[in-house]
Structure formats: C-alpha cells, structure tokens
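fyi for ur records
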Amino acid sequence: MSDYRTKKIALPSGQMIEIIYLIDPDAPADPTPQTPVGAAHDADLPLHYCPACTSDLVYPVAWQETGEGLWTVERRCPNCEWHDVGVFEQADIEPFDDAIEIGTEILLTELRTWTYSNMNDDVELLIQALDRDLIQPIDF
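which gave:
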C-alpha cells in the first residue's frame, strides 16, 4: 500500500505504538483554500485553536512544504467541523507541532491509565472467579 504513512511512538514501558495515517488518493496533491466564510485564521490565536469555537483541539489534516520556511497546512476542528487551508511560516508551525506532541503525550498517558485500570479490573474478576470455582479445566 502506498496510500499511507506511519509514525512510531515509544512508550515508557519500551513498547512501540505505530500510528497509521491513511492518505486519500483522490485528494489534490496541493490543497487549495476552502475556508468557510468568516472562518479565516485569527493571527492572535495559535494554530491549534479554532477561530470559530475557540477549541484547542485543531489538528492538521494535510501539510506540505511550499517554499523555504513556508508550509501549506489544512487544519480541522473536531468540535465544530471548521476547516481551513493556509500558508504559514516555520515560526508559526513549530508551536503547532509542539502542541500536537503535547496532545499525543496526553493521549498516551490516558491510554496507559485506562489500560492499567482495565487490566486491574480483569485481574480482580479472574481472582473472584477462581475463588468461587467458576473456572473449570474445560474453559481452557
């Protein structure tokens, strides 16, 4: 498959998570601005903030280096479905990238917390089942 890209993230436990980004083969190679009326980027807001609903969850859908120090970035807000395509300087992109990395770390921390909690619940249920003789050799 040539219509995807991957990013690997190392967890503190040593495990690796591979994130797969699917690429739409019908999407134009160089996105053109499709900003809804009144939804242009506010220069006072960081790129990860939505100018329509002020959510801080805006993420890049597509990006492409369009010149020396310039990036064409398509962004989307998951809260209000705002989207925008704009050209930004490297100085604007770096804090955006940092915000994405911080968000990824927050998600991974939550994933570890939920995984640990679910595993504890499963172990407790297994112990209860063993104590009540609910598990028989035929179960294996």
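The first strand starts at residue 4 and ends at 10. thats all i got for now
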